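Hi P.,

Sorry for the delay on this. The queue was packed all week, but I finally got your sequence through. Input first:
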Amino acid sequence: MATNGTQLGLLNMKRLVDTVQELSLARDIESVMLIVRTVARELTGADGATFVLRDNGFCYYADEDAISPLWKGSRFPMETCISGWVMLNKKPVLIRDIYLDDRIPADAYRPTFVKSLAMVPIRTLAPIGAIGNYWADYHVPSEEEVALLQALADITAVSIENIEVRNTLEDKVRERTQELLDSLDREKELNTLKSAFVSMASHEFRTPLGTILSSTSLVEKYTETDQQDKREKHLTRIKSTVKDLVQLLDDFLSIDQLEHGKMETRQENFDLQHFLLNIVNDLDGIRKNRQVIHYTHLGEKEVQLDTKILRNVLFNLLSNAIKYSDKDIDLNATVQEGMITIRVTDQGIGIPEEQQKNMFSKFFRASNTFGIQGTGLGMNIVKHYVELLGGTIDFTSCENKGTTFTVLLPNAAGITKAEVLNASASRN
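Then the structure:
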């Protein structure tokens, strides 16, 4: 007949087996600690149990199950704590009277019920923590109890490692899944852009190519000397049309370079007033009959920016103002407090209010621009350019009354993006 000791041993062994099954279902360290601190008391008949984790040079008392509070949430230096001794020495410790052992920080134990303890490392090869059992009366645990506690600690180590491996795998799966989703989004966006490009190109290329073809045919007919003027007229049309096609292709190249971070800025000092007046003069060829660009300047003239990018921004804004308006245009520049503010105001067709949210989207053309040539890329490129210069762009518009674009730029490399945004918010 089995003795009581044998029956107890079988029960404890069954409890360990059940614990293995419980821990196999645990998905986080909190669940592991809940199971382990409860089972640790059951296996040894202790009055309290703590679950300690190694936190660099400290022992972190992460969880506990006891008849009264112990040290949950506390951290102690490894060298001053009995759980630290266990981890550093990689072996269990049994102490009948804690106040007779110089490894015990007595002051930390006086407020507690503890008189005796047993502590085992979680993983003996390279301990990651410790499990402590405590008794309110003087007690020396048996070899079987210590073996059970160490077996529980070994099972705990495996469970924690499994959770870490599982979490790592889950993180990789999530990361890979996100990469696939991003890739699908990029593919969808690319397909959308391809469709938009084909649609836009079939429309935008047809007219200039038709112009080139007809002008070329007419040039071939004008063979007489007295028809030189007619030949030159059509050759000029061909050159102008080719230039428009080149600009169209340049827009697509710019979009690609900007979105892939291939474009760099090159700052230089220059006279902003002189720079803007030159741009106004360059636009004389496309201004409508009796249309005037009124330019005003306030503040300093010397600035520091990338002239090539700034020219592209202003040329685009002003040419749009000319295209969508028959009346005069205002160009205002202000340089003060390290900031450059440039406004372009027209009295043209404006942008319908419900469509203004799409202003800087690729291929956006407002519904009231039908019959006016354009790709819908210009403002998207302008926004990218302005952001590349560390600035912001905003606009106000009223249909059939006109539009004002406001560009705010830093006048030095030392001005931060936050300062530009704050200045933009305060001016609005």
